[in-house]
Amino acid sequence: MPALQVRDFPEELYEELRLCAQREYRSMAQQTIVAVKDYVSRETERREALLRKSEDVERAERMRRTKEIFDRIDARPPFIVPEGFPTPEQMIREDRDSR
After folding, report:
1. pLDDT digits (tens, 9 = 90+) for 24-60
2. Which of 28, 32, 60, 99 has its CB surrounded by the most CB atoms within 10 Å?
3. How crowded is residue 17: how many other Cβ atoms within 10 Å of its Cβ?
């Protein structure tokens, strides 16, 4: 099992950790593991939340751009099919007959 040695550990922090360990009926090693696990867990959650927020911002930007494109399309004058223009069915029939 790996070991961890911390040099120049602040005395005040060591005393707080010792008191926490005493209150929780843990050894200093156990309390240190609990404290590190808690910190790593919170940091992982924070990083994941930032990632989700970043993805939400990107999604919102894509939606804004898409809406902008559709707004520009909607602002164009409607396309009117000229009189006598063949229907899609007629164009398909003509293409098939030409083979």
Report:
1. 999 999 999 999 999 999 999 999 998 899 999 899 9
2. 32
3. 16
**Angle value at C-alpha 47, between 62 and 3, nearest 5 degrees:** 155
Q: What is the DSSP string of the chain?
A: ------SS--HHHHHHHHHHHHHTT--HHHHHHHHHHHHHHHHHHHHHHHHHHHHHHHHHHHHHHHHHHHHHHHHSPPP-PPTTPPPHHHHHHHHHHT-
Per-residue pLDDT of 50-84, as tens digits, reads: 889 999 989 999 999 999 999 999 999 988 888 88
